[in-house]
Amino acid sequence: MDQTTNFARHDRKRAAERLATFVAQSVDEARAVEKPFFHLEFDRVFPDDIYAQILRLMPESADYRPMHGRSKAQDEIQTRVKIDLFPEYIRNLPAEKRALWDVVGRALCSDPVKQAFIRRLAPGLSKRFGADFAQVGMYPIPILTRDIPGYLITPHTDTRWKGITVQFYLPETDANTDIGTIFHDVLPDGSKPKATQMRFAPNSGYAFAVGTDTWHSADPVHNRVKTRDSILLTYFVDQGVLKVLRNRGKRLGNFVLNEIRHRI
Question: Which pTM was predicted?
Answer without folding.
Answer: 0.90
